[in-house]
Every structure is written in C-alpha cells, then in structure tokens.
Design brief:
Blueprint: H1 2-29, H2 37-56, H3 65-85, H4 95-130, H5 137-154, H6 164-189
Helix pairs in contact: 1-2, 1-3, 1-4, 2-3, 3-4, 4-5, 4-6, 5-6
Keywords: Membrane, Transmembrane, Transmembrane helix
Protein name: YggT family protein
Family: Belongs to the YggT family.
C-alpha cells in the first residue's frame, strides 16, 4: 500500500515536471511572449534544472536541447521508478528491458507533447468564446498557431467559425487512443 502511494506521488510530480519542461521547450520554439504569469511560472519552476544543464548542453538554433533532454530524462526516471516500485527486477533484467524502458519514455514525451497542444487548443477555443482578450491569449496564439496553420490549409472556416481547432482535437485524441497508448501497452507487455 505504501508503494502505491509513493508511485502515485512520483507519477504526479514527475509528470508535472515533464509537462513543465516540454511546455517551456515549445514556448521557446514558437517564440511565445514570456511577459505573462504562465510563462514566468514555467520558467521559475524549471530554472533549477535548465540553467545548470545549459552550461553543458547549449541550444542549437531555436532548439533548446537542455529542456528537451530534461523532459526525456524525467520520463526515463519515471519509467524506471514505476517498474521498480511495481516489483520488476530492473537491476537483473536483460538488455531488451532497457530498450523497452527508453521506448516507453520516448512515447511518454510524444504523448505529453500532444497533450500540451491539445490542452492549449482547447483552452484557446474556450477563451475565444468567453474572453478573447485575456492576458494568456498571446501565449496560446503563439503556441497553437504552427499546429492549427496545418489544419487551416485544408479546412476552410464555416462562416465565422474556425473548425481547425475541432479537427486538431479529434486528430490528437485519435493519435493518442489508436497509436500511442496501444504502442506503450505493447512495449510494456513484453516485459
């Protein structure tokens, strides 16, 4: 029972931390404005690890490798600790187990990345109806524009309604439920 509580806390903390690292990565990649409270919160929460790693691992152009590597390492630690707390003998397992663990961590990064954009599009759509001039709107616009631009090429507006957020939400959910989650389950079933 104590293992379950520790596992829950570990999953909650490391998932939130991975989310924060990836959100910072995508905010920097899309050149979102950092003058609002959400962006400042993400920077404050992640600076403890990003600043020291940037000294060792510099950015390559627009790509901030330190935040991306930290997100992956956080998912990797989560995968290893989850298996260990569930009683899996990681230390005596073979090499194929480590390939599976690295794969599960990578799938976790892709899933959380997709979730970031999914939530951003959903929040942006809701705020556009309720309060389109909220202080977080520029951040959401910067974050979602590259993704929604792809959908806007193929889906014209229906009158004054932009249907691209709905198409993205459906596509993202479809990718999560038909590809990423089954792939992760298949990898974990090989252990």
């Amino acid at each position: 029972m104590l293992n379950n509580a520790i596992l829950f806390l570990l999953q909650a903390v490391l998932s939130i931390l991975t989310f924060a690292f990836l959100l910072r990565f995508y905010l920097q990649l899309t050149k979102a404005p950092f003058q609002n409270q959400l962006a400042q919160l993400i920077v404050t929460v992640t600076n403890f690890a990003v600043k020291p790693l940037r000294r060792v691992l510099p950015s390559i152009g627009k790509i901030d490798l330190s935040t991306l590597v930290l997100a992956y390492l956080t998912q990797l630690v989560l995968s290893i600790c989850s298996l260990w707390l569930k009683g899996f003998p990681i230390l005596i397992a073979g090499h194929t187990v480590w390939v599976v663990i690295f794969g599960v961590a990578l799938i976790g990064i892709v899933s959380i990345s997709l979730s970031i954009f999914l939530y951003a599009v959903l929040i942006q759509a809701i705020l556009s109806w309720v309060n389109p001039h909220t202080p977080i709107a520029p951040v959401l616009n910067s974050l979602t524009y590259p993704v929604l631009r792809i959908f806007r090429k193929y889906i014209p507006p229906a009158g004054s309604f932009d249907l691209s957020p709905l198409a993205f939400i459906i596509t993202a959910q479809l990718l999560l439920t038909t590809i990423l989650i089954p792939l992760e389950n298949n990898l974990l079933s090989t252990l």
